[in-house]
Amino acid sequence: MRSKPTTAPVLRTERCLHCRSVLHGTCVGWANLTLAIDDALLQRAREAALREHTTVNALVREFLVGYVDARSRRTEALDRFEAVAADSHSSSRAPWSRDELHDRL
User: Fold this and answer.
1) CA distance 93 to 61
2) Contact (CB, 8 A) for 25 and 71
3) Which of 33, 40, 38 is nearest to 63 (CA)?
4) What's the whole-model pTM score?
5) What is the DSSP letter of 15?
6) Residue 53: which region, alpha, beta or left (left: phi > 0; alpha: psi -120 to 50)?
7) What percent of the chain has pLDDT over 90?
8) How large is the C-alpha radius of gyration of the chain?
């Protein structure tokens, strides 16, 4: 049986969002973060990063960007909803009965 040749994975070159240079960790605007992660989870993250030709650091950064963006969009949507509701002049003074809810005029 023939064995597969082993080659080192090719990693995507990460560039700084501020100065567009290759990431070196010293650019203004970047902060170091220490995380406590279960060993098994970290191993799975490393394997996923290798499959995607990236780094665990980039995966965490992408996750945080997506999380913060999604939260911001939800907050903005709720703010818009509340603004529309505040401008609405319809209201009910008393609860509706089942018959009223199903009344088909």
Assistant:
1) 49
2) no
3) 33
4) 0.53
5) B
6) left
7) 39
8) 26
Residues 11 and 8: their CA atoms lie apart, in Å, by 9
Angle between helix axes 39-51 and 56-87 (nearest 10 degrees) is 90
Q: Which helix (H) or strand (E) holds 69?
A: helix 56-87
Helix (H, G, I), strand (E, B) or coil at 51: helix
Per-residue pLDDT reduced to its tens digit, 22-32: 555 555 667 88
Residue with the two structure tokens 């499959």: 51
Q: Which residues pair with 22 in a beta bridge?
A: 15
Which residue is listed with tokens 């008393």?
Answer: 94
**Torsion 53-55-5-43 (CA) sign:** negative
Tell which wins on pLDDT, 18 or 91.
91
Tokens for 46, please give them. 């490393």
Average pLDDT over residues 11-21: 57
65 φ/ψ angles, rounded to the nearest 5 degrees: -60, -45
